[in-house]
Amino acid sequence: MSAKNVLLVEGESDRGFFEDLCKLWGVSVQPIAVRTPRDAGHAKDTKQAAFDVLEKTYLPQLADGQIERLAIAVDADQHANGGGFARTRDQLTQRLTLAGYHLRAGSGAGGFLFGHSDGLNDLGAWLMPNNADDGMLEDWIQLNLHPGEAALMQHAKSSIDQIPGGPKFKPLRRSKAEVATWLAWQSEPDHGLWQAAKLDLLDNAAPQLQALKTWLMRVFPAN
Questions:
Q1: How far is CA 43 from CA 12, 35, 50, 196, in A?
Q2: What pLDDT does residue 80 have?
Q3: What is the mean pLDDT of residues 16-26?
Q4: What are the residues whose beta carbons fall under 8 Å from the beta carbon of 159, sequence distance 6 or more?
Q5: What's the pLDDT tens digit per position in 90-140?
Q6: Can you tell me the distance from the alpha carbon of 218 to that of 176, in angstroms, rounded to the nearest whole number?
Q7: Of the candidates 188, 171, 98, which has an alpha carbon nearest to the alpha carbon of residue 135?
Q8: Cα angle value 100/106/111 (rounded, 5°)
Q9: pLDDT (0 to 100) of residue 187
């Protein structure tokens, strides 16, 4: 199904989370279609796949008017695992520069905006968690946790520390395990990561939450 506003993400969990955030915030009058690489015909849903379909599918569609507004939100991941904020930023910027985009002055912690000399709408990019540090969507959730959930999250972390024999997952996936454990103790434990996109689970006054909301509304304005 065609859409004029596209937010490209890494996979299904991210799609569900952002779809619920957009509904929660009422970001745009025209609905935002949250897409994964598989939606564009790629064999995988990964960060690298997202970069590939951004370059080969969505940038051409933005250029010829098939879509009007475009953004990408991916995890920075960890430097020790071949990722990291700096590497992810540079890889994305290099691809966009080759397509004629330039980084807007002031872009950074509040989300990235790339302009184009042909007068196309600005392209947005958000590197989880905060456009500055290594990490992922789950780290963003923890940065913006509702104060009433702090004790439960701490209990989830303590429980992971006490796993007999130690965790089976790699250290770089620690934040995923913490958020998954915390969500497993919520009222709807089987509803996945997008369950976190609720007013009673996130702190609407948190700086990073407001930064993401402002960035989304800048890339996908109501009119």
A1: 14, 14, 11, 28
A2: 77
A3: 91
A4: 181
A5: 999 999 999 999 999 888 889 999 999 898 999 999 999 999 999 999 999
A6: 29
A7: 171
A8: 80
A9: 87
Residues 100, 41: contact at Cβ < 8 Å?
no
**Taking all residues of the chain, what is their mean pLDDT, rounded to a whole number?**
93
Cα(192)–Cα(217) distance, integer angstroms: 25
Amino acid sitting at position 6? V
DSSP structural state of residue 1: -
Name the percent of the chain lying above pLDDT 90.
Answer: 78
- What amino acid is encoded at 168 in this protein? K
Encoded amino acid at 122, one letter = D
CA separation for the pair 210, 111 (Å, rounded): 11
Amino acid present at 71: A
Helix (H) or strand (E) holding 200: none
Cβ atoms within 10 A of the Cβ of 143, count? 18
Distance CA(108)–CA(130), nearest Å, equals: 9
- If you ran DSSP here, which 8-state letter would residue 166 be given? -
CB 169 within 8 A of CB 177: yes
Q: Which tokens belong to 110? A: 């509040």
- CATH of the domain spanning 5-136+204-219: 3.40.50
Domain ranges, ordered by start, for the chain: 5-136+204-219, 146-191
